[in-house]
């Protein structure tokens, strides 16, 4: 689905949305006296009021400017999502958002929440079962936002929808090869290059982690290299993004045992969807940064020759890993990619992965676990971007004591440590494969939801896309 954004000084559609920042003041909204009295009464208990004139719907949304800027803008996105739900119910596809001159960013945030909340994954619905509504047009009425801002918002929404589509795609229709081919198609549309390494190339590169995880699969692995290198790039050394691409995770021979533990494991490639969608935004918006994205991809299944607990594998880096749990597979394929990233002499590497249940248990679905060695200034910039787009990052420590639990008696390291602090020991494992500024983002909590969380719709959320786009835009 694709939404058309426009900018006009005139209102165009039967649905109109206004923002107010004081529940008692409706200045500038064309209401009759009776309508104004009704709206003010409704605002005593509500944050969104609807005036239904039958020929048109007028939405009036309240956001509290006394909150921090991040929370304030998030309120606007949430009001936009509420409006989206009402438009769906009323089968209305077009809406004007009247930009408040006092704070134009709030109008953009309202539009963002409205668009994101309209997402639907209908690919496998029969024609008779598809929902009969799509949001088609959003017009930002007023002269207080630029065409560039609106164009960037439109590309952002496209990127998020692409990531959600990939995560929601079932493994029966998305193996490692098809995932890589999707990246290639995205690159052709947006303008970045894609090179797909197949099994023979992966073997030549001695990516033992990726090859081990793939042993139980009937489908071969892939390793995708995406690159956006504009002539006006402001960085002399590239920023490298690494995304976990496990298209389905059974746990391998360490089979996931509990109820519901495997039902949503098509989402275990969410990190790869995030980095590819960020590349799409960067290329389509012509972001002046040299970016590379790396995606190791396979499924993880318990077939006849599957790798087993007790195995020792040789990694791309030359290090050895004792496998004690085949369900700790994501760190193995990421480690090969992080080692490969050294060839680029990167300015910064950020990996994104649905890596550990521990991260989800620690902070739930409302934040992203981050850790790494990139330094306080870089982490602070990333955290600020998290506040800006409300994909907040919680930094976990990489204290050396956590590394004790991944020491092996027979190899350089084990692939799993203590249960306590499991997200951190996973990060400590990855750190063994980097020698550059690096950040690890564990999106296991927010990447896939069983119920909608406002504009983060049920299923794949694309959590991390908006975070990294904001972070990279600020770097540029």
Question: Secondary-structure blueprint of this entry?
Answer:
Blueprint lengths: L3 E5 L6 E6 L12 H10 L5 E5 L4 E6 L6 H22 L3 E5 L5 H14 L19 E5 L5 H22 L7 H15 L2 E5 L1 H6 L3 H7 L7 E7 L10 E5 L1 E5 L20 H15 L6 E10 L11 E3 L5 E3 L7 H11 L7 E6 L3 H7 L4 E5 L3 H14 L3 E3 L17 E2 L7 H10 L6 E5 L5 E2 L9 E2 L4 H11 L1
Parallel strand pairs: 1-6, 2-4, 2-5, 5-6, 9-11, 9-14, 10-11, 13-17, 14-18, 15-16
Antiparallel strand pairs: 3-4, 7-8, 8-11, 12-13, 15-18, 19-20
What key phrases describe this protein's structure?
2 domains; 13 helices; elongated; single chain; 34% helix; 20% strand; Leucine Aminopeptidase, subunit E, domain 1; six-stranded mixed β-sheet; 20 strands; Aminopeptidase; nine-stranded mixed β-sheet; 476 residues; alpha/beta
Radius of gyration: 23 Å
How would you sum up the global shape? elongated
The share of residues in helices is 25-40%
Task: Give the strand tally.
Answer: 20
CATH topological fold name of the largest domain = Aminopeptidase
CATH superfamily of the largest domain: Zn peptidases
Structural class: alpha/beta
CATH C-level class of the largest domain: Alpha Beta
- DSSP strand (E) fraction? 15-25%
CATH architect. name of the largest domain: 3-Layer(aba) Sandwich
Characterize the largest beta sheet: strand count, sense, and whether it forms a barrel. 9 strands, mixed
Oligomer: single chain
Rounded mean pLDDT is: 96
The low-confidence runs, each spanning 5 or more residues with pLDDT under 50, are none
